[in-house]
Each structure stands twice: as structure tokens, then as C-alpha cells.
Amino acid sequence: MSARMDRRSFLKAAGGTAAAAAVGPAVFRPRETWAQDPRTLVVAWDSDIDTLDPASFKTNGGYVTIANICDGMIGWKVRPIEGQPGFARSHPGEFDGMLTESWKTEDNGATLVFRVRKGVKFPSGRPVTAQALKYSFDRGLQSPGYMKLIFPRLIRTTDPAQFVVRDDATFAIKMPGSTPLAMDTIALSNNAILDPDEVKAHATKEDPWAAEWLKRNPAGVGAYRLVKNEPGVEIVFEAAPGYWRPKPYFERVVLKLVPNEADRVLLLKRKAIQLVAGRPGLSPKNVKSLEGEAGLKILRVPDTICNYLAMNQKKAPFDNVLVRRAVNYAIPIQAILPSVLYGYGEQMTSPVPSLTPSHLGKYSPYRHDIAKAQALMKEAGVKAPVPVDLAIRVGWPTHEQAAVWIQRELEKIGFKVSIAKESDATFRQVAIKGDHTLSIESWQSWVNDPYYHLSFLFDSRQKFTNLSFYHNDRVNRLLDANMHESDLAKRNAASEEIQKILLDDAVWGLLWYENWVRVMSADLSGLEKRWDTFERYYAARRA
Predict the structure, then answer these.
(1) CATH classification of 302-516 is 3.10.105.10, yes or no?
(2) Res. 424 pLDDT band, cuts 50 70 90
(3) Omega into 338 within 30° of 0, i.e. cis?
């Protein structure tokens, strides 16, 4: 396919009648598409790159790009998935070396010491050294990105002096004490290691960390390098020469921006792409329709993604716990699971995901029971009808469909529900400001740890992620006392206590845990599911 081929031409050239009608006449027909090149992987994607700064990216496009072009010190280890040959997934507490080849603990776990992998070089030819590791962590702590908020909370580093170069090949992180969160936090792609000289060369007095330059320019080392970033059209990676591991099977990866789901399905069937990724990717209904489709296969893995009904506790009537409990009894989850998720998800039984250590799965009393919900509304003294807007994102079919089921049942207990559809950007802005009263939310913790999850979502001091605006002093104290607790039995017991409080307080309307699903060409293998959900394409290959 021509490097200048736009999305309309791509869809037309794929041979899709519906897509062609939707986008109009093609400018030209290419002589071949990327999909016909056995060493090129073409992925239908749904998100542009916002920035290539590891400490600042927010979009899925930014994350998947950094995960493929910039290595960190360590990564999550993967093991084969039983019953799904050719695919692998992470397990809690297991890590692989990347730019560091070994590590150890000192001071009863308060100090982590990493040994830099020998012979690794940045694209500039400069070696990866302990000084580069320190610069990257110093930058995360001090640059404008959000890692300066993450480090103090998760690994209790507040001073660059805690990041120590012992010699050119040895780097240490000195924490006040040990924490179960340390290795997972370090494994995040936000901690990709950058070439200090390259970044410093583009720094200015006003921008000492070169954040503006890094928006469009990479400075790390990874299996791939970014060769094209055309917003709204495509992102292209090519295998990086001189990478420390053997060259990946796919020499080129093309992320085609295909925002329309019908187009994604059509391109899969036409074999113009090999994989659909991103979020929401394909709806469960469309995935179900592709089961048994010749030339395709489906990878399905349970995940930590939580979809929930956010009830703003700063707004009546959701400041009343009886009303929130009534809502939970009114949610028809047993109807939503087969009718909306088609089996590609499971019922939420706790705000902590079922794959997360200390998940409390049998405590929740909530089952669909309209009579119980009506009695609670009466006990709460709420005068019906209660007008309320239920906000959802446009283009999230599971949320759109679930909203209709929820609307119908809530109206049985005294609400008058209007479904408000908002763009993703608008939805996020309104949610953060606290202007939603009722909304369907989705959250996925990049670290599979109960305290990472609970802290972001239920600590009243979190300004941008506690979207129920929940406040409970007991929960805050338990989080503070146990987040870094080294006694795992004690830590897990406190997590279970927090979950019981959250369920008693009916903080969320419990909906579902989402499966991680990828639909792909039948000859594709080697995908690896990590905790952050974003594919690294290094191990992908054709069968």
C-alpha cells in the first residue's frame, strides 16, 4: 500500500461495498496492501498519539506506541495460556528483565538495585547506562507529567536523591521501606528509559524537560521505531536495527485508524487487516457474530477492566445510601450479561476485580430484586418521579445497550431517566468536574494490585479518578495504613475490609468485569496479554 494512502482509499481498496458506499469514491487502487506482505502486521486501531512523553501520555495510541518503541528497566513476565496455544498472559508478581538484566533487594526490601543489561545502545549510538536510568526517573518525578504524582504515592520517592547511580551499570531506588507496589510500578511503560543527551539537546529554559519536543519525537530504545504518525490515518512502526533481542518476526506494524466498527468487521473479513485492537475494538455482539468465521480466530482472556454505574454522592438523591442500594437491586445484570456482553464478561461482585489478589467475591448481597429496590426507595423517603440524566460515551455499544436496560428498571423504582450521549472528550471533562449525576464508567488498573485500584477510585483525596465523589475516613485510613504493608495476609485482610465497606455503602452500581478480546487472522499467534492491556508486538508472528 502506498505510504500516502489515506483511510478512505484503504477502505475502498479493501473491497468492502458497505465501506466504499460510506466513504465515497477511492482516489486510486493500490497495487498491493500492507496486509499482503507476510512481514507486515496491519491492526485496526482507534486512537491517535497525544504525546510520546512516557511521563505524560493519556491516549491508548500514546501508550501502545511507547510500549513498542521504548523499553523500561523491567516488564511483566508472561506465561502460556492454557487451552489457547500460541498466546500468553501475565501473572501477579512475575517480571522479566528488559534494559536491566538482574535485580536484588537490600535494607529489608527498602532498596531495589538493578544491573544494566550489557551492550544496549540508544538509536543515537550512546550506551544505556545507570545514568540514563537515573535521568529518566528524575524526569518522571520532576517533569510536568503525572508520574510526579504517582511516585510519591506508590513507591514513596519524593526526592531525586532517592534515585542513585552506584556505577555505570548499577542503579538503585531507595524507598523509606519495602512495598508490594514497587516492581509493578517500575514495570509501567511510563518509566521507559530515555536517552538523556537527546532529551537535553531539545530542552529550553521554559521547558527544561523537553516535554514539547517529546510530544512528537521519541527518545528511547525498543523493538520497533516510529516511522510515521499521521493523526486520523495511521501509526507505523518498523523493526529497530541493533535491538538487544533478536529481530521481531513482523518487520513493520501498521496501526490503521478505523473509528467505525462496521469497517473493522468488514476489513477483517476481507483480510485487509490481521487484528482489531484498542478500546472498544469490537463489541461483544460483533465478536459473537464472528465465532466460527473462516479464516479468523478469537482470543479471549479474563481481565481487570471494571464497568460500573457511577452515582455522584455530592448530588441528591445519590447522597443517600438507601437510594444507592436500591439502584444496585434494580440493575438487571442477569439480563445484561447475555443480551449485551454475549458471554464476553462476568458479573461484578466487588469493586476489586476478580483477577486481583484479595478480591472478595461472595460478600455482595445485590441481586436483581425490584420489590427490594422499591422498598428501599420508600424507606429513603424519595418522592417520585426523580428526574436524572444517565451519561454514556458515544461509540461504546455495551454502555449504550446497558443504559437502556438500566433506564427501564430504574423507572420502575421511581426515577425518570434520560440517556445523555457524550463524546469521549466531553464525557471525561464533565466527569472530572463532578457534573455527572449518574453515568456508566469504565476503569482498568495498569497495576494488578488491590491498593493501586482502591486508592485511585475510592480515596476521597483523589481528584480525577474518584468519580463517585465518595468520602469515608475509615477507608482513607485503611488505605494509608496498608498500601505498603509487607505482611500480605494483613494487607489482604484490610483490603477485604475496605471492600465490605464499599459494598455496604453501595458506592458503585455493580455491572461487569470486561474480557480482553482480540479477533484476528487464523494464522496470527504470539500475542501477549499484560496487566495494562496494550500489546507489545515483538512476539507476534504468523503461524
Answers:
(1) yes
(2) confident
(3) no
